[in-house]
Amino acid sequence: MDLTDYFVTLGVRPAELSGLKELPGSTKDRLTPLLLLAPWLATTPLSRAMDKFQEAYPSRHYFIDVDTCYRANENLNDAKELWQRLAQSPADLDAWWELLESYPHANPCLLMAEQTIERARDQIEWARENNRMFCLRINLAESIGSGIPKWMETLVRELTTEGANDFVIVIEFGWVENPLVVAAAAIRIAEHLFAKVPDEVPIAVSYTSFPKNFTKFDGTVELPFTNRDLVAEVQKRTNRRIVYGDWGTTRPRSYSHASKPKNRIDYPTDTSWVFARDQNESIKFLEAADRIVKSEYWSGNLGIWGEQCIKETAMGQAFAIDSMRKMYAVRINIHLHRQAFHDQLPPPEALDEPWHDDL
User: Fold this and answer.
1) Which of 49, 298, 310, 343 could serve as 40's disulfide partner, Cβ 3.0–4.6 Å?
2) Which residues face 275 on adjacent strands?
3) Degrees to nearest 5, angle at CA 41 with 248 and 132
């Protein structure tokens, strides 16, 4: 499995899969998704979610974990019941392996919550017997992460002693408000737990700071993000390769009863997000897109679906951005492309596929 320098955590949600699907193949080749598994809408079986993901990201390897932020409502079906067995602590590993067996491109994260070290070893053995890599995903997300198992240091020592390099490490913080706290914790964990892990084993530091509330944004406003600065700091302090990770401009699932969001257009740059919206009323998508296209932040030459959608929206064309869901997909599409080619954005003619709108 060829690993990239961009680990992106993605949920099984329409906007994420649409934004991913519309990327050129050369962009998909430069990112490594970590899929958080949950039922696909109200459909069944649970494998339908994996099928939908692989339609968007065909014939490529990826990592997979269980989305423990998902909440199954009272209308249970086979997909939700299986998800519950996988999300419980400890997880039903036999059900996990049975599900993954038919998906050879899916490389499992160890399901570690309330598991023993013996069951962690069993998961590694299963991965190896089935020609998979595996992932040690240290989930430190506030209030929802499973934390670091007490046996992790022993397991890492065993893997290091045998010289294993068939795994990756992801230090996950979920949504964070203060990235400085993340940097200190990531450095501490990398130095304490993973200092002797072989250099060829990637360590990704992942979090998202994408806003939860947009009421303060008025007009055309830029908001920087600092994930790459954090990676550089951790790399400097630990003197080893640290891989960039984020959530593709999304956040962990939440179920608060927020009011319907006002229309806006979000436009990712290499190091920031630009928001075009009005505080007092819901702007028309056409006007918001026009603000983006006329702003200093607009590139206009990425040659990808998301940017073309914003341009066509500003021109008032049919089948452009006409819903927040499609706007989210557009934003995700642009962000993934920019981060996959960070500092090396290719000209449009170098992309291997023209964009097409099949939403």
Assistant:
1) 49
2) 221, 266
3) 60
3-state SS string for 6-42: EEEEEECCHHHHHHHHCCCHHHHCCCEEEEEECCCCC
Provide the H-helix boundaries in 194-304: 227-238, 285-293
Encoded amino acid at 75, one letter = N
pTM, to two decimals: 0.95
Could you read off the pLDDT tens digit of each residue along the chain, which spans 359 residues? Answer: 778 899 999 999 999 999 999 999 999 999 999 999 999 998 999 999 999 999 999 999 999 999 999 998 878 999 999 999 999 999 999 999 999 999 999 999 999 999 999 999 999 999 999 999 999 999 998 767 778 999 999 999 999 999 999 999 999 999 998 887 889 999 999 999 999 999 999 999 999 999 988 888 999 999 999 899 999 999 999 988 899 999 999 999 887 766 788 999 999 999 999 999 998 888 999 999 999 999 999 999 999 999 999 999 999 997 899 999 999 999 999 999 999 999 889 988 888 664 455 44
**Which region, left, alpha or beta, applies to residue 333 given φ > 0 means left and ψ of -120 to 50 means alpha?**
alpha
**Who's near 338: CB < 8 A, 6+ residues apart?**
268, 269, 270, 302, 345
Which H or E run contains 137?
strand 134-139
The closest alpha carbon to 172, from 71, 40, 36, 60, belongs to 36
Pairing of strands 32-37, 62-66: parallel
Q: Find residue 36's DSSP bridge partners.
A: 11, 65
Give me 226's structure tokens.
């600092």
Q: In what order do the strands lie in the sheet with 167-175?
A: 106-108, 62-66, 32-37, 6-11, 242-246, 203-208, 167-175, 134-139
CA 270 to the chain's CA centroid: 17
Cα–Cα distance between 221 and 347 in angstroms, integer? Answer: 27
